[in-house]
Design brief:
Helix content: 25-40%
Radius of gyration: 12 Å
Order of helices and strands: EHEEHEE
Shape: globular
Strand order of the largest sheet: 4-1-3-2-5
Distance between the termini: 32 Å
Largest sheet: 5 strands, mixed
Structural class: alpha+beta
Oligomer: single chain
Number of helices: 2
Length: 92
């Protein structure tokens, strides 16, 4: 299975609703690597790396988000691999 790397920006009510924690849990469940972090503009930035089908599942999950989030948009782009990735991290 081919590897895929995606950088995504998630907008809406996605901060203060445990979005990063749920994102990390879902990424670990799917077995993808990467990171998630809040941005100053109120959006959340996500980098996902792994088997293409699992990365696609993770991107689709971003549209749902945590139970109390309200996602209004996801902009996802295929990018180059980040060679320093180990597991999935919440970045600050």
């Amino acid at each position: 299975m081919a590897e895929k790397n995606v950088h995504a920006l998630v907008s809406g009510k996605v901060q203060g609703v445990f979005f990063r924690d749920y994102t990390k849990s879902e990424a670990e469940r799917l077995g993808v690597s990467g990171w998630v972090r809040n941005k100053r503009d109120g959006s959340v930035e996500v980098f996902i790396s792994g088997k293409a089908d699992k990365v696609d599942q993770m991107v689709n999950w971003l549209y749902q988000g945590s139970p109390t989030s309200r996602v209004s948009g996801v902009k996802a782009n295929t990018v180059e691999k980040d060679p320093g990735l180990i597991g999935f991290q919440i970045r600050h």
